[in-house]
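Two records follow; treat each independently.
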Amino acid sequence: MLERPNLKGFEQPKFQIGDEMIAYQMNWRRPQSGELLQKLEGAVKLLSDDKDLAFFEKENLLKTVLERENAGSWIQLPNSPLFIKYDTSFNEIRIINEEREAQADFTKVLGEDAIKKQAELYLKQLAENQVIDYQLYETAAMQLGYAMVGSGSFSQKVQPAQITSFRITYRPRLNGVELANAGIRMGINLAGVLTSLRVGGVSPEGEWKNGSLQSNIPNSRRKIAVTTNDLMSKFYNEKLQDGEVQVSYSKVMYAMPEGKSEAIVEPLLVISYSDLRTVDNHPVVSRRKTLAYSLTNPEAQPLDFDKPRVQHEGTEPLRKN
């Protein structure tokens, strides 16, 4: 995780036995149509020119993105470089400005620090345009990624990869704990211009007081009864009986159970891993798997986010990374 320019000295919770954690009611809530259209318009403002936005509003083109037969599908707005998608299951808006993404001016290249500062400005603009609640993202975690291209051949030395754009991801924190199923991902080109946006996800319920979201469910305070070290030992003891494992990450997070559109969620130790096996003297690596362990009930079985569902596929959302 990066240190955000406007968030100095943030300290992660220690998750020690006896400490309290807060559980929240959460849901994949689609806003009312007027609120949703307002969010979509606010997002489009950051990815289009003023003249284009005026044209979109006059022609009511943004409403077509939200119509039932279009929801969940990519739509290119007529006479526009914008591709837009609204995912109803996850309450998520995605926008790509194809022209901006195609621009690769290597004469004006900002460094990582400048890109981070530019991302903070876009974050505030999203709040000003009422796309997000800034309170939810004020202490959010920041991640930095890249889009890169390279070249080479079998007969020549491969050239070093060239960064073509940056990917900044914000993941909300509640009481210092990341929320896995909500966030913002910005595509920003080398000159600091926003080229794509992905925003939305699960909605935690409660009332904001003094910069903290107060849970609205009874018995929301839960005491930690087992350490993360003990849970990792339990994980390895169980998995190593069948072979080796390769852990990609382990992190305490709020994570919605698989197949649920609403649930009471408390922080869990989420472990992403792959199984390592040897078949016919060749190493075989499984697909990525995810388990989540309770910190408040040492006897609870881990949640398996990859277990096949028993019921037929319906309208309930599947896990969103």
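The next record belongs to a different protein.
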Amino acid sequence: MATAWGPKWLRMLSRWRRGLRVAPQSRALGALVRGVTRVDNRDDFLGKRPHRRHPGVLRLPCVRPPRALADAAQLLLLKNAVPGMEKQVQTLTNYLWSRHVPVEAEELQRRAAGLEKLFLETPDLSQTEEKLRGAVLHALRKTTYHWQELSYNEGLSLVYMAARLDGGFAAVSRAFHEIRTRVPEFQPQTLMDFGSGAGSVTWAAHNAWGQSLREYMCVDKSAAMLDLAEKLLKGGSESGESYVPGVFFRQFLPVSPKVQFDVVVSAFSLSELPSKAERTETVQTLWRKTNRFLVLVENGTKAGHSLLMDARDLVLKGKEKSPLDPRPGFVFAPCPHELPCPQSTASRPLACSFSQGYHPIPFSWNKKLKEEKFSMVILARGSPEEADRWPRITQPVLKRPRHVHCHLCCSDGHMQHAVITARQHGRDLYRCARVSSWGDLLPVITPSEFPPSSAQDTPDS
């Protein structure tokens, strides 16, 4: 008997015990997605394609900025030697990533009133008005985030270009890829970029729809940024032919309400606005100027996600109907619904974010592959029935022996932790889940799409 339990048999026993250990969990969590028992094959969506290319796959391979853009950026840094550029880039990157939403004046007043009441109840504090005001201001400075508006002059614009041009290009490219993949017949002719900065949106849009786009409107209040973006398009010089034709630069949004664009983009720009009132006015203006898609992108942080959810709610719940374009709006991506975001309303709120790999512009300090973590919301004009309502995978997929863990945002507005196995859910669904990635859509029929009797008849495990 001793020889029967050699290394080979011990390895087999270990694998068998691991299987036993995960099976009960698999059955328990699988019950959370009662009704998710098969792929959505109503239109024979796979056809002759392999599972790894199912229509919910939206991953974009590691992107690389166009060679012309990389060369122009490197040339501009050589021409304009900025001392300590690497350190400045790191400082600005950290600052932008850690940025919070600015505190509103009403909230400051409320906090000040609370602190004043607290100090008045403190017996050892002298109650002179001047000292009380000083104590309140001192406490506010220590406990309140100090939001500061950045003024992009020529020097800071160069630092921003070196820090954010390639990462911004990667994030916006992923957002455009979502539209191109799901609506391949969409061929926009006009695009407006609010807060255009160094022009990463223009380059990404040209890369995606260069054959059809004939007009790019870049809007940024910083004249230095507009000048830098134009130089990048001209190969790093002030003269010459633009790499992307049909690009126009403005410091203010077009005034006429009749002017609309097929695609309107705001990438990392809502976080640059100092108040909720200004953000509200800006989002409403951008939506009025949207003919088909409004693409909003921010950092993949709680603050960035919060800004996007406010903008999303503003468009979906907006009572203002433009007489020039009364078509309603719906969420094209990433949410498969128009309900409150389950990530935001959870007991421990999380940012709904995604990740895109990219090759950075090869500055001397910047040569390894990078990941851009970002949040996005794509709003569209029309009817929600025009879009797929498959669940969105909101976290990295965990692949384990004979089962797969997927965290899904479903069309009923709830998050589900699905453990999918071939035995319980079928070979097609299991293989589709196994080849899917964070950010993909899982082509399944969710419980809300089943008749009540079907869901009730589904076994628990």
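Discussion point: Residues 1-5, 16-35, 448-461 have pLDDT under 50 and may be disordered. How would you locate this feature using only the token line?
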